[in-house]
């Protein structure tokens, strides 16, 4: 099987030749990879199975401080609005405040002081439908498919976009005290995500990726009832709109943390694969037993457990257990639960892929 055949078989809950694999390496780990291996492409080196396309950044890049600087006039610390260094989406006007470790940073919200819906109407949201943002997509999709890859296109966040624009605390206040504002903001973001998803489907992608962190270690960030009111119908709106273009497209959904209370409803609205089934928060084997015929499991390799604090032998043992328990019937894509950070020992990262090479085959 090539990569595309392997992944599509897995998404259809058929057993492929081997478990598909992928990973996301943070910048420090990519640097370590280059030093250790002399190679530049981790995906080719470890035979990852996904191809990705996305919307272009503006060219030439606009001056972000000129475009958004007025929204940070009351900030008493440095905000970085720079295309080349910002971690958070600068084209949305979200500034970056550096943290103290590795690549970590925090968002600085441009709408923190907004009080009126009219301010949302006047805000310069990004426009992904300008032709130069997406006129490359068909050619990129065709190239990746010809190279034997399944193609995923991401449309980003809804809830996280709202709170990085507004601050999470203020958005939750809005849910109760200013629902008109929260509705207007979430609806504006949803319209953008829907347009992106439709365009990706028109370009021929196999899968659309949605992301929103709605879980933490031992619970959800919000109650299931709040998620049902504010987030679920908007996710469904995006999924339904995209499936009107291509009824057979797959949706992969990422969230960190514990999601068990809403997994049946994610399936109900059309999610095919849960990109992160974080083993420190959920029992991956229980999720397989309960939902494995309806939902693909990804991101089951914990970045906070064996991969970070174990030995290579521990990693080998964990991969063997996961392959034995999650492979049957397909629907298992092996990947770390989140971006691999520099606190993961190099030897453990190597052990993970070596163990997948040994235990990931179906015959």
Task: Work out the helicity level.
Answer: 40-55%
Number of strands: 9
CATH architecture: Alpha-Beta Barrel
Q: Report on the biggest sheet.
A: 7 strands, parallel
Rg, rounded, reads 21 Å
Helix count? 17
- Alpha carbon gap, first and last residue: 13 Å
- Quickly give the structural class: alpha/beta
Mean pLDDT: 95
Question: Which topology does CATH recognise?
Answer: TIM Barrel
Beta-strand proportion: 5-15%
Biggest sheet, strands in spatial order? 1-4-5-6-7-8-9
Order of helices and strands: HHHEHEEHHHEHHHEHHEHEHEHHEH
Unreliable stretches, pLDDT < 50, 5 or more residues? none
Number of domains: 1
Element layout with pairings:
Layout: H1 3-11, H2 27-37, H3 42-45, E1 51-53, H4 64-68, E2 95-98, E3 105-108, H5 117-122, H6 131-134, H7 137-146, E4 151-156, H8 159-166, H9 168-177, H10 179-203, E5 207-211, H11 224-230, H12 232-245, E6 250-254, H13 263-269, E7 273-274, H14 284-291, E8 296-298, H15 306-309, H16 312-326, E9 332-333, H17 346-359
Helix pairs in contact: 8-9, 9-10, 10-12, 16-17
């Amino acid at each position: 099987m090539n990569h595309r055949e392997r992944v599509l078989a897995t998404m259809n809950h058929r057993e492929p030749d081997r478990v598909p694999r992928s990973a996301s390496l943070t910048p420090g780990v990519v640097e370590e990879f280059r030093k250790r291996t002399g190679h530049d492409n981790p995906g080719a080196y470890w035979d990852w199975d996904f191809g990705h396309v996305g919307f272009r950044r503006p060219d030439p890049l606009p001056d972000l401080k000129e475009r958004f600087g007025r929204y940070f006039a009351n900030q008493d610390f440095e905000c970085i609005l720079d295309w080349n260094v910002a971690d958070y989406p600068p084209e949305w006007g979200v500034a970056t405040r550096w943290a103290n470790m590795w690549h970590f940073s925090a968002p600085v919200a441009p709408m923190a002081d907004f009080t009126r819906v009219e301010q949302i109407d006047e805000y310069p949201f990004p426009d992904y439908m300008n032709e130069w943002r997406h006129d490359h997509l068909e050619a990129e999709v065709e190239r990746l498919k010809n190279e034997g890859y399944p193609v995923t296109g991401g449309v980003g966040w809804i809830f996280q976009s709202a709170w990085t624009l507004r601050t999470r605390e203020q958005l939750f206040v809005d849910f109760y005290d200013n629902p008109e504002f929260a509705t207007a903001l979430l609806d504006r973001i949803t319209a953008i995500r829907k347009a992106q998803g439709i365009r990706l489907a028109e370009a021929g992608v196999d899968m659309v990726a949605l992301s929103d962190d709605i879980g933490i270690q031992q619970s959800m960030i919000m109650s299931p009832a709040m998620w049902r009111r504010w987030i679920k119908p908007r996710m469904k709106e995006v999924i339904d709109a995209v499936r009107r273009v291509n009824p057979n497209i797959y949706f992969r959904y990422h969230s960190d943390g514990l999601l068990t209370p809403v997994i049946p409803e994610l399936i109900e609205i059309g999610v095919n694969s849960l990109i992160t089934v974080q083993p420190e928060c959920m029992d991956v084997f229980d999720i397989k037993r309960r939902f494995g015929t309806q939902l693909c499991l990804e991101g089951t390799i914990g970045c906070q457990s064996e991969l970070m604090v174990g030995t290579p032998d521990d990693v080998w043992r964990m991969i063997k257990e996961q392959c034995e328990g999650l492979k049957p019937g397909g629907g298992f894509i092996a990947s770390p639960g989140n971006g691999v950070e520099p606190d993961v020992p190099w030897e453990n990262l190597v052990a993970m892929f070596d163990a997948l090479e040994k235990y990931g085959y179906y015959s």
